[in-house]
Amino acid sequence: MDLNTDDVSVYHNIRNELQEYANEIGILINNAGVLLDKPGRYLDLSEDEVMQNVRVNISALLMVTRAILPFMVNNKRGLIINMSSASAVKPLPYTGVYSASKKFVEFFGSALGYEYKNDNIHVLTLVPSYVSTKMVQFSKFLSKPSFIIPSAKTFVSSAISTIGHTEHTTGYWAHGIYWFCIQYFSPMFAYQFFASKFLTSQQPKVESSRV
């Protein structure tokens, strides 16, 4: 299913197709997301790339949740897991649109959880750092699993264990340490300086891989 669309009928169809399973629906995982092929300044992005970030990272999450949430309200139970990112802790240069979209996910999840807690609906917001997936294939370093960059399987196993214990978590122990340090011990100027240096240093790897 292509979520890079402004056609709201796509989401109406999702709800209609799930109607026969209405009484069984209890979990929604909003994991769809898009990151640019490589870091870059805002004007380096095409209009299509900007809107793709908005549609997939924000609009799709809102509309899929809107399609599924009524089932949970009627059933008086539900778990919604929203995938944000550690890039939302502080504004991240060279991935500014992505970083901002993930901050939206974080804020929306927190508000939604409060609004529907009396309906026995729980919202868990995950704010991981880098996970070794195709999304970070612009960097050989980030693409290689390690103790600080878990594989998707390792991350999921860790994140699942947090369900029922918190409403907001990185989902992985090493990412929790990173998040804490960035949040409380890293001044904004220092974080943006070193993060931007790292991200821009990854660009030649992308360009050389396309030759």
TrEMBL record:
Main subcellular localisation: mitochondrion
GO molecular function: oxidoreductase activity
Coiled coil: none
Pfam families given in the database record: adh_short (PF00106)
GO cellular component, one term: mitochondrion
UniProt-listed Gene3D superfamilies: NAD(P)-binding Rossmann-like Domain
Subcellular location, record wording: Mitochondrion
Keywords, comma-separated and alphabetical: Mitochondrion, NADP, Oxidoreductase
Family: Belongs to the short-chain dehydrogenases/reductases (SDR) family. 17-beta-HSD 3 subfamily.
Protein name (record): Inactive hydroxysteroid dehydrogenase-like protein 1-like protein
Species, as recorded: Leptotrombidium deliense
